[in-house]
User: Which sequence fits this backbone?
């Protein structure tokens, strides 16, 4: 079994995405580790909203490559910076896998092929929500969990890179959200935060965001609900 170490930077959505990645890789026999020194795969789930965040990641890539000098490891960059800086990351020769926010299902194949050369998938999707994947929770306090309800944004604000790194808005099936919230209760969590780049735009057929809040609250009455980010 290969061990995977992931550092997560940026927003709560990236934390949620990392949990999805651990779940996908876990199905293929990979095991999560919190020790970079024993990892076979070292990855960073990245943010591109601020330049400072990207500069920090570039510094971490240098640190990851120190591990490569000691032993054979695969280095991957995931998320928004992977989407925005894909060409520069591959050209650096210091990264084996570059995967955008909608390419996580293909990570097992990308990692397997990395032995033959650098691998990249930054294709943005109009329908990927990872709806049926039950995340592998990384929060060790067992109190609060994140649930992604939608992905992307259509606002295209002049100051924001999100629509270009996470694509267009699409909402997750509300049944899977309720099921995940109920699973959190069974696992002992006391509150969940419903996540999206713009949760107010959530729309799954006849269920809008207010309707989703009502469904989750009625299905899990003991659960405290939060949400982020809203843009009325």
Assistant:
């Amino acid at each position: 079994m290969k061990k995977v170490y992931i550092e997560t930077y940026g927003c709560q959505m990236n934390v949620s995405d990392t949990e999805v990645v651990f779940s996908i890789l876990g199905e293929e026999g990979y095991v999560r580790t919190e020790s970079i020194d024993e990892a076979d795969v070292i990855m960073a789930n990245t943010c591109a909203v601020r330049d400072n965040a990207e500069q920090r990641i570039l510094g971490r890539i240098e640190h990851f490559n120190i591990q490569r000098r000691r032993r054979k490891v695969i280095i991957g960059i995931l998320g928004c910076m992977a989407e925005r800086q894909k060409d520069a990351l591959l050209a650096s020769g210091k990264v084996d896998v570059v995967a955008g926010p909608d390419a996580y299902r293909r990570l097992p194949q990308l990692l397997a092929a990395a032995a033959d050369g650098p691998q990249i998938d930054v294709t943005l999707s109009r329908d990927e929500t990872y709806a049926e994947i039950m995340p592998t929770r990384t929060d060790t306090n067992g109190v609060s969990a994140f649930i992604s309800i939608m992905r992307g944004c259509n606002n295209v604000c002049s100051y924001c890179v999100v629509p270009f790194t996470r694509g267009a808005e699409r909402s997750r099936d509300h049944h899977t959200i309720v099921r995940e919230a109920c699973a959190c209760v069974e696992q002992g969590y006391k509150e969940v935060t419903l996540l999206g780049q713009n949760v107010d735009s959530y729309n799954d057929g006849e269920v809008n965001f207010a309707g989703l809040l009502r469904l989750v609250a009625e299905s899990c009455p003991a659960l405290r609900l939060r949400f982020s980010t809203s843009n009325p």
Notes: The two ends are 46 Å apart (CA to CA). The chain has a mean pLDDT of 95.
